[in-house]
Each structure stands twice: as C-alpha cells, then as structure tokens.
Amino acid sequence: MKPGEIAFKCNFATMEEETGVVTARRCDRNFEREGPILCEYLDETVLPSFPKNRVRVKYATEHRCGLVVEGPGLCDRISSTDPLKDNLKLLVAEPLDETEEAAYTAKVVNEVSDTIRKMLGTHPVNQERESVGKNPANCVLLRGCGELLDVEPFESRHGFKACMVAPTKVIAGIGASLGIEVVSAPGATGDYHTNLTPKMDTIVDALSWGATGESGDQGEAGSRMGFLHVKAVDDASHDGNVDLKRDLIAAVDVMVGQLVKRLWEKERESNGALKYYICCTGDHSTPVEFLKDHSHEPVPFVSAKVSDILELSGEESLSKCVPTESVKLPYAITEEYRQKCLDSLVRRTPTRGDSVSSFSEVAAARGILGRFPGSQIIPFISALFE
Fold it and tell me: pTM, whole model, 2 decimals?
C-alpha cells in the first residue's frame, strides 16, 4: 500500500439479490480454485462515477481476499459493509465523522460494493457453482477499512529482530507493517489443508541462521524471535465443528513436539551458541459450541526453555512421541500413537517454574504468571534474552 490508499479485509459471500440479505458470509472455505480467478477479474476495476479512483484485489486464503482503493480524497473513517452475521442485510458504508473526506470515501466504497456485485453476478464461475448447487460468490463484504500506518519498526522498539511464518495474509500484513520478516514455508496455506511441519522447519531454520557455533553471535540478518501462526483451529470454531477443532488441536500438539525436537537438535549442534525458549498462546478465544465467533475470555499462555522440556520429558520419550512424517492437515492421531506416548511418558517434578502440567484455560489459571494483558508478552520475551 501507499499513503492515501485504503484497504479492506474481505470475504467472498452469497447474497440474495431480491432482498439484499447475506445468506452466507463465507461462500465456501474450499475456494482455492475459484478465488484467484475472481480476484484477477476484479483487479483494476474502474468506478463509473469516480474515474480517478481504482480498485485492486488480491486473493488471500479460502474465501478471503484483500481489496485496496487508490486515488485522491480517501480516508479510513468509514464503516464496513459486512453485517458480521449470516441472514442479515448487506450494509451501506457510512462516514464516521463529518469531514468531506469521510463522506466522499463512503460514496466511493458503496460504488465499489455495487460495481463488484454486478460484475460477479454474471461471471462464469458463479454460473458453474449455481449449476451444481453451490453458493454463488456474488458479493464481496468490505470490513476494517484502514490506511498505511506510520509505526515504529519492531526492531527499533524492542531491540531485536523478528521473523514470522504466517500464511494468513492479515497476520503477515501486520508483521510486514512492523518491519518483521515474513518467511514463506512450502505447503503452508493457512487453511484446513495446510502442512504444519514445513512451517515448523522454516521457523527453526530462520532462528538458527547466522549462529557462529563458537562465540554465540548471530549474523547481521539473524532473528532472535520467530512467530509461527496456525489459523485452521480458529476456522473450525467459526464453522461450529467440535470434532474437527479437537483433531486440529491434536495435530498442532504434534507439530509443537516436532518443534521442540528440532530446536533441541539445533542447540546441541551449536555447541552452546544457541539457547531456545518456546511460548505458546492464542490471539483470542473462539467458542466452538455456542458462539462460533471471537470472544473476550482469557487465553492460556505457556513458556518453557527447550532444555528444561528435555530435562522433564527425557530424550527417549521425545524421540518415541514425536513422529517423523509431516503433519499435513487433515491429520488423525491414531490410538496406537496415543498409547506409545503414554507408555514412554516420563513425569518428573519440575525444578523451575510452576506445577501446571497441561495447556488449557483452566490449567493456566493456576500458573505463576497470573493474568496479564497481551501488551506484556513481548517485554516478557525480551526478559528471556537477559
């Protein structure tokens, strides 16, 4: 983005033309084939009433895309067109203040919404979808209008470099805006079909690059913190799929085991130059059974030194419990695997930290960190380097 442009996080959705009711805010999660086709079709759209403003569209994941409006006179002080719930009418963008820029931007954005809807209504992709009984992607919901922010880079603020693996574009966009290096991982799609193990491998490689193995110094481009984001669990919550969410959490648990094992291997290979910590948490709660949307409950947070994990579990236990094959979704945990882990599990009394032995909201509430705001996470991580 450039200064003066506005951007939206968008959904391809299904709307009843006669009533204006959005019947499905997510037309289809399995939209990897059609999504790029429609985004290319909508890209560079010219607005009849606003010829100086132009629309850019880029596919993200599943039913999602990003949309940018360029041209003069724009600001981010307008409301969204997304009703946020199924079976509600498509909204009209409204100015959020009394400035000329806000009033003008609302008019432009409403024409964007109308123009795109007319273009999608006759597209062959939607004709094909309707012919086989699928929801047409005949509407794009525009939400979260934003401008390019002039923010202090992450490294300048916190004193160390960071990298991230985040196929979900809105997460990657936040990182890029802060000057955090966004690293691509093969097979990482940010949806129900992602491959978790390459994401883990990529973040480990990024955090070990530049280590000398002798002095402990890192190369000029070395990152001291890596952020690995997994989106699919949240998707299952939005879809109200309890069984899938359970299985996805189990798959992530296996990936975390692979992460611990690989980081421990890197520690040993570095001859003491590298020391790793792991922090696991969630960016929000999404109750799967009753709300199926983001909520405001506290999320669990855990931090551990990799060498301490090995001290508690033992290398033999880690070796038996961590599979070598890629954790590619959908991934099923077999009963044989569960039993093997239980048989090899070593339970030692921790000599540091607290006695919490499971990762959940209830268990974490008993931990020594207590309850704290998300703004304290990076200072907490920074303290680990001292």
Answer: 0.82
